[in-house]
Amino acid sequence: MVVGSGGREHALLWKLAQSSSIGNLFAAPGNGGTEALAQNVQISATDIRGLIRFAKKNKVGLTVVQSNNPLALGIVDAFQANGLKIFGPTKEAAKIEWSKAYAKRLMRQADIPTAPFSIFSNHEEALRNAKHHGVPVVIKASGLAKGKGVYVCKTETAIETALRELMVDRVHGDAGREVIVEEHLEGPEISIHAFCDGKTAVLLPPSQDHKAALDGDRGANTGGMGAYAPVPWITEKMLAYAKEYITEPALAELTKCGNPFVGCLYPGLKINEQGPQVLEFNARFGDPETQVYMRLLKTDLLEILAACLEGALAKIKIEWHEGYAVCVVLASGGYPGQYETGFPIYGIELAERFPEVVIFHAGTKNSNDGGYITSGGRVLCATAFRKELTAARQLAITAAHAIYFRHKYFRTDIGAKTFAF
């Protein structure tokens, strides 16, 4: 059973469905597209008791959860207490994501490279510190804010607005009860993911998410408008550094605290002349990074998940297809702000006629006429695989153009940037 309803979950189901060791697949609650692979179960991802009852009744052999909210609520602890196998970190191990203040303190303790920072729970103290720091400065909500709790402030007015929204108006709820004020890091951002079994970390190919809504990294910050992997300018030396000085020290520190991490550890990094530096840690697969990873993964995903749970990750070899995968997110007009839903979707079958194109659903529902309608901000993920990055980009964009729903928009520059250091 895969818990969640986004493009990440559809991609995980797509890959798991290829395993000869799996009989029945369930998606809870799933989306319009997951029904082609699994039985959708109308249980919310945060209804932990309901999920446990279903897993017991249906003899679910493994549950996979990669959504931050149920992890923060302790879904893994609850499943384990009921004798059920589940892939994901415990609540305290996942704290490295659901409390950015905790993560920054852990990084300081483990000497993991990150931006200099201060932590505040008082609005006036945070305001004084941020203004004294000068601009640009980054202000972050410590708690979970659906990827929208980070403010890059380039003026004093922006500082005032960010702290008022977070700490006074509480636009992100309790996520803004505690804030981090930190130095702004220059350089491109990449995503590093690692399968972890509590003691061993195996890095996935580097990927790059695109957070801004519009081409050229303009517009509002979103949950992610597209991704590609691998990143051609990330060297083996950089990856070795990230493993030795970032993922392995984080795992060791969590184990030292009595919270060994089993699951997917995902640090977001800034790359500059000082080397890779951690922006934040996530305790699960990224979205839309998962969509490209599942297109590249050659090894049976179930085999990897089982090795993580059994502490045997070092005993297996994880293989990847040679080439590039690109994901272009098709979003509802207005996202990440207010948007309308319920519009018919056309052209999915047409898009998937292109060789090496797979469309993952993120915010869709089945319509009464057998088609699909929009039901979220991020609606579909057009993914393409090719030996060359340019060809994969062009194919993903072509597939995105083949699909239509009212007010659709997407970025056309996913994977277009290259950097050299």
CATH 4th-level superfamily of the largest domain: ATP-grasp fold, B domain
Unreliable stretches covering 5 or more consecutive residues: none
Helix proportion range: 25-40%
Instruction: Write the CATH fold name of the largest domain.
Output: D-amino Acid Aminotransferase, Chain A, domain 1
How large is the share of residues in beta strands? 25-35%
- The CATH architecture of the largest domain can be given as 2-Layer Sandwich
**Structural class by sheet pairing and helices:** alpha+beta
- Tell me about the largest β-sheet: 6 strands, antiparallel
Rg value: 21 Å
Describe the structure.
Helix content is 30%, strand content 25%. The protein has four domains: 2-91, Rossmann fold, CATH 3.40.50; 116-183, Dna Ligase, domain 1 (2-Layer Sandwich), CATH 3.30.1490; 189-315, D-amino Acid Aminotransferase, Chain A, domain 1 (2-Layer Sandwich), CATH 3.30.470; 324-409, Alpha-Beta Complex (Glycinamide Ribonucleotide Synthetase, Chain A, domain 4). By secondary structure, the chain is of the alpha+beta class.
